[in-house]
């Protein structure tokens, strides 16, 4: 799994560069949501220089096409509904522990990968 360092254009471009290096010489098709940092002039220029990378944008307002949305929805229901967390760290620990208890089959079914 690759994760952007930060939810901004710079972090996204760094992640794209890691993907290009990892899959050097291959055609890469990447589907992303419509976050503003996935678009813009810097991203367009980057794509012009890296022709083997093709970014496709999911249609807006269609969370059913963005599989991680079902993961987050389930996580919120199972772990954070009607719970008060003193700190952000407490929330992070709770979510992490819940994700560690999920079996791979559950994650696959939530992501509709089968």
UniProtKB/TrEMBL annotation:
Gene3D superfamilies found in the cross-reference section: Ribonuclease H-like superfamily/Ribonuclease H
Organism taxonomic ancestry: Bacteria, Bacillati, Actinomycetota, Actinomycetota incertae sedis, Candidatus Hakubellales
Organism: Candidatus Hakubella thermalkaliphila
A Pfam cross-reference name: DDE_3
Domain Tc1-like transposase DDE: 4-88
Protein name: Tc1-like transposase DDE domain-containing protein
Top-level taxonomic group: Bacteria
GO molecular function, one term: nucleic acid binding
